[in-house]
Each structure stands twice: as C-alpha cells, then as structure tokens.
Design goal:
Chain A: GO terms for molecular function: mRNA 5'-UTR binding. The complex is a heterodimer of chains A (about 80) and B (about 160). Chain A is an alpha+beta fold and about 80 residues long. Chain A is built from 2 helices and 3 strands; from the N terminus they run βββαα. Classes of the chains: A alpha+beta (about 80), B mainly beta (about 160).
Chain lengths: ~80, ~160
C-alpha cells in the first residue's frame, strides 16, 4: 500500500478527478473530505463489507415458494 | 432468449427486459445482467432478481414500499448520475431479502436498496448514508401489521 503523510487541510489527488482532503484530526479520529465525480461510489468499508456479506447470504436462498411458506405466518 | 432460472426452470425472456448492473452488486461484482421475475401475482410484494449469466444466482427481492409504508429516502446522486435517471416515475426500487432456515426471521435490506432505471434498464445497489435503515429489517412483523397481500392464498376479506 502506498502511504503518504498529510497534515490538516492537505490533499491528495487521484487520477486527476478525485481529491481527498484531511479536513480535521482529533486524536484517533480523522475527518476526510472527498471530491469526486458524482458517478463514483464511495462507501465506508465496514458498511460495504456488511452489504457484500448480506448479499452472499441472500444468494444462498433455497428453492422456496415464498407464497406457500408465508401462508402460515400471515393467517 | 432462453434463460435458466433458479426457481422457474428454463424460461423464455424478452431480451429488452435485461437490466445492466455496470458494477454488478457487492459480493457479485462480475455478474452484471439481471432480469426481474414476477411469479404471476403482481399484488405480491415479492419478485426475483435473476442473474442472466449465472442461472444459479437469484435473489428474492421485495418492493419495500409495499412492506414498509413510511420507507423514504433520497436517491443518491451517484445513482441519479450513473443510471441517468430523469424522472422518478422511471425508478423501480427493490430490497434484497435474506430467507434463513427459520422463515420467520426473514429480513430485507433497507440500507442498501437496488435502484433500477426502467427507462434504460440500468441498475445498481446503493448504500444509503443514514442510520435510519438497517441491512436486516424483519419482514414478517411488517407484513402482519400492514396486512399486505402476499398472494398467500388467504380468503378475500369483505370490504
């Protein structure tokens, strides 16, 4: 991994259209500002991983008949 | 074209109905073409998001607005931009459902809805930047509360 040292209010530019700025540093917490084209998806990594894991779980679905299976619950 | 599906065997689909997910969906980034299948009952909130290139990949999905009546979010800019959304009327929203062994624990993902522009058949799964909605929202209680017609074959109620 490329590691760069930046101070508050300093930025890095990626691929001439994504700018990442260190907005604030308070102890353990760093606030990061991102300027990127609107079509770029930006996620907090732990949330992205959670969505990935949830989708994988969803894909394991067995051959169910939701209509039939839900009957019992909705009487 | 003939399509092998996970739940309906081999069916004939209209190629113009294929939805392009440019980046796939998280966890399945390489699989990019899906169709939305109904199981014959348009009143049911359930549908299938069936992958076109891998017949074994299909997600149970729901129309979240039919299940959670006050579900409300702003479509993220990234989706408006990359799906070329011009009118809200063209937008279809689906929530991916996890159906565990114990079906009473079935959940839907309200935090990361699938957004489809039905005008150009482009879709993506977005992640909402809010703590209001969870990736695991229990469905059964909602359905009971809303008395949603899931096509469960219940007797029609007198109005």
């Amino acid at each position: 991994m490329l590691v760069l040292t930046r101070k508050k209010n300093e930025s890095i530019i990626i691929n001439d259209n994504i700018e990442i700025t260190v907005v604030d540093v308070q102890g353990e917490q760093v606030r990061i500002g991102i300027n990127a084209p609107k079509s770029i998806s930006i996620y907090r990594k732990e949330i992205y991983l959670e969505i990935q894991a949830e989708n994988k779980k969803a894909a394991e679905i067995k051959n169910v008949d939701l209509k039939e299976d839900l009957k019992d619950f909705l009487k | 074209m003939l399509l092998k599906t996970k739940h309906f065997g081999e069916i004939n689909i209209d190629e113009s109905k294929i939805i392009e997910f440019k980046d796939g969906i998280p966890g399945f980034e390489n699989l990019k073409r899906y169709v939305v299948l109904y199981d014959g009952d348009k009143n049911s909130p359930f549908r299938w998001l069936q992958n076109v290139d891998d017949g074994e990949l299909a997600f149970a999905v729901v129309n979240p607005f039919m299940v959670v009546k006050d579900y409300d979010f702003e479509i993220p800019d990234e989706a408006v931009e990359s799906l070329g959304i011009e009118s809200i009327l063209d937008v279809m929203v689906l929530s991916i459902v996890v159906v565990p062994e114990d079906i009473s624990k079935m959940t839907m993902n309200l935090k990361a809805p699938v957004i489809i522009n039905t005008k150009n058949n482009k879709g993506m799964q977005v992640v909402l930047d809010t703590d209001r909605y969870s990736v695991r929202h229990y469905i059964i209680e909602e359905l009971r509360r809303q008395e949603v017609n899931v096509g469960a074959g219940s007797d029609e109620k007198e109005k």
